[in-house]
Amino acid sequence: MKTLLVVDDEVGITEALNDLLSEEGFHVLVASNGKEALERIAGRRPDLILLDYMLPVMDGRELLNALQSDSMLRDIPVLMMSAIPRSSLPRDCQPRAFLRKPFTIDRLLLEVGRLLGGPAKP
């Protein structure tokens, strides 16, 4: 079973993604900011991180940079989600994939499957 980490400070989004991805057969971890995400990663390494760009405490850019600077974590694929366009992200914020909010369930599952190297269902 693949483990996904959803990092978003909007409870409605984390609950919806948790429900959807759990129904798809994934083990889902949730964090509300980048600092909490690093704590979750220390406890269980995810196969994929779904990361909101705008977060309190430690934002998506800071978490992505922390992951990319750690040789043990840099290979975890990151799917960043944001209402801002990808072209507006800073140069030092280049996730493996990007979804602009709002996105469809089909698009999300397609990206998750692509990043995990197969169909969305594990």
TrEMBL record:
PROSITE patterns associated with the record: RESPONSE_REGULATORY
Superkingdom of origin: Bacteria
Residues that bear 4-aspartylphosphate: D52
InterPro entries hit by this protein: Bact_response_regulator (IPR050595), CheY-like_superfamily (IPR011006), Sig_transdc_resp-reg_receiver (IPR001789)
Domain Response regulatory positions: 3-116
SUPFAM superfamilies: CheY-like (SSF52172)
Alphabetic keyword roster: Phosphoprotein, Two-component regulatory system
Annotated protein name in UniProt: Response regulator
